[in-house]
Structure formats: structure tokens, C-alpha cells
Design a protein that fits this description.
434 residues; 20 strands; 4-stranded antiparallel β-sheet; alpha+beta
Amino acid sequence: MFINIDVSTATMHKEGSLYQLYTSFFDDRKPKFDEDERQAFQKSISPGIRVRTTYSGNNAPIRMVKKLTTKTADKLTVAVKHPDGRSKTVTVAAHFNSVIGKSLSYPKIFCAEIGSDAIPLELCHVIPGQIMRKQIRSDKIKSARDFSNTNPAQRLERIAKGLKGLEYGQSHYIREFGIHVDSDSDPLEIPARVLKAPTLQYRDGSAKTAKSIKIEPTKPDGKWNIKNNAKLFMPATVGQFVVWNFENRMKEQHKISKVIKDLVRSCHSLGIKIPDTAAFIKLYINPQTDVSKLFEIFYPKKIGVTTLVVAILPENASELYTALKYNGDVKFGVATQCLRASKCERADTSFYNSVCLKINVKLGGINVVPVNVAEFTSESKVPTIVMGADVIHPGPGSEDSSFAALVASVDMNHARYVADIRVQKSREEMIVDL
């Protein structure tokens, strides 16, 4: 019998005042304390973060936050009973000013609803050791991945330490069943092979006739220095494109023009045929706009047949991104390329070259092919299909369906792929319809 052990990473709520947790949640900018922020933070702390009120002393009971109030502490009112039995209506801010003997530091923000009480965020202390049950913000995912990423040797070392930490030998239940776990044994070894980094084939942009460039990897782990005259193996053609900007700080004409100019320059340098300017430019669109109506208005009635929509998005725009992809890929059949505004503001040539690689594939082009396909297959003379499969699950706390995807190559260079996606039971890891 084998024990399968691995390490995992979880996001924890930071200990401290609930107000500090709120401000750190929006650490990329100064919080506005508006309705959108309130809902976003409330979602992140549900289904009920546990806190202890600081005005009740060290022995105050741990209580659970139900939600955040829509009114601020200086606007929300409560009925306070006096010793003589009379009741008086005062604001939450005024009430707690008398309770703690000083003015609240932040009376103009909302409160935490705990039971039937409304308590200012600054008076709620978050208990340590609480796992964040909701999916983290999209802009935080990279930080979480960077924190959890380790090389194989480090991961194996962590697993070995974790095995000793589990202390199977001390378990009463394991001893009762007469089971012995050898914590000092070596991990199971399975024979495998490491694929050689391939030589890549591009198109020679300096040649007058069709000619390819072969680029050897510079390092064994697979890194290539692309030559200046190297073009994509099979560049696509952009018939015409439109630009929609959803970021307020990018709405000036010269900023959008620079994005278009840099994108077009990179397309030309890689061999992608694209008009020098967009067929239509919308300098600013409210992110709350119904995206489906945008497609209905601007595609195809107003500007004709469009092969690409370039959308500039603000931070934390996952819902907008999903709507753009759904309408472009499913409803209208037009390729969409989303760009984050913060990246556009400091983008260099390498950024737009990477964007062009995505655009080329979306429009049916081929970026690069390996020179010797047989290096990746065990039988060089036998036609081979390369397949890949994965299952993606909903975020923590959600019972939505899981999605299984399968891709398979359809050409001899293993450069073109078709895909199929199926919905299956939530958190089912096995692909049901494979």
C-alpha cells in the first residue's frame, strides 16, 4: 500500500482589524469605500469571517460577520436604552464614541453586521488562522502562484518534512488496525524520460522566396533567441480590427493611438498582415456596459466584417473579460484580444510580440513548428496525435459545475489543434465523457 502525499497552498485572512484587512484588500490603490468595493470585500470574507470586538476586553467572545452594512457608521442609526428605561435613536458612530470614550477614526465607512449589531470595522479584530474560502482576486493569483512555486527538489523536501510531521506512528487509530507506516522509506521511483529541447522552424523574412530559419535552443531547458528577420511560420491576416477601451485613464486619443501603433508594428515585424489603423475606435466604454449590445451595434452592422476586437481592460475585470470572450467566441464568432491597461502603459516590444503570438493562433495562423517532429514520438514513421486534457473546478465555496477540456493535434507538425469542452459534476476530477 502506498501513501500519496503532496503540499498545497491556501490563502489566509490576515490577523488585525477588519478595517486594515479591508484596506489591504485594495492595496493597489486608495480605497473608495463605495458600493462596488463593499460588495467585493463582503464576497471575499463570506461565508462568515470570525472576529473579536476590541471594546469588550480580551475575554470578548468570537463572533461571525454576516455581511457589511450598506450605510456608513455616521448614517446608520440604532436604538439605545438609557438606565431609566427610555430609548433614544442615535447613529452607530455616536453610540460607539460613548462606548469607547473617544471618536471613531473612520466614521464615514460601513460597519460589520454581527448578529443584530452593527459594529465599526475598526473595532473588529480578525482571528488568526482563517482560510479564505472564496477565490482570490485575479490580480492576486500571480502572487499566490509565485509564492507556492518550487522546483522538484524543494517540493520533494517539503513532502518529506510533511510526512514526518503527520506522525503516523503516534496515531491511535493506525495502531488499533495494526498498520505500520515507514516514514523513513524513500519515495517511489518511476522510470521517465526528459524530452530534448527542439530546434524550432520560423520563416525567413529577408528571403525573397519561401525559406525557413532553424533556431537551436540556447540552453538545455528550452530557451531560444529569435533572430531579427525571423517571421512566424504561417502568419495570419487581420482583415480589419476595432479597439474598445474600458479603462478611464486610457481614454485620451494619443494613448489609444500609441497602443494601436505598437501593436501594428509588432504584427508587421512578425509577418502578420494587419491594417495600419483600426476600423473603429471607442475611446471609452463604461465597464458596466452590456457587452452583447456592443457587439450588436459595432459588429457587423456599423463597420462591416471584423476579424479582431482589441479590448483594453481595467484591473479586476474578470466579469467583463468573461463577457467579451463569451460574446466573441460563442455568439458572434469574432476573435477577441484583451489587454490590461496597466500593462499597455509600460509595454515594450516584447509585450506586443507576445500579444501577436496569441492573435496569430486565434486567427488560424501557426507561430512555430519543431524541425524534427519524430523527436517527440516513439515511432517516427507512425502518424501520431498529440492530446492534452485537464479539468477546471469552481472557486472555493462554490458548487458550480466543473469543466473538462480535451485538445488534439490535427496536422503532421503538431501545430494545429481542435478542442472540446464538456460540463460535468462539480469537483469531479476524472473526465467523465473521455
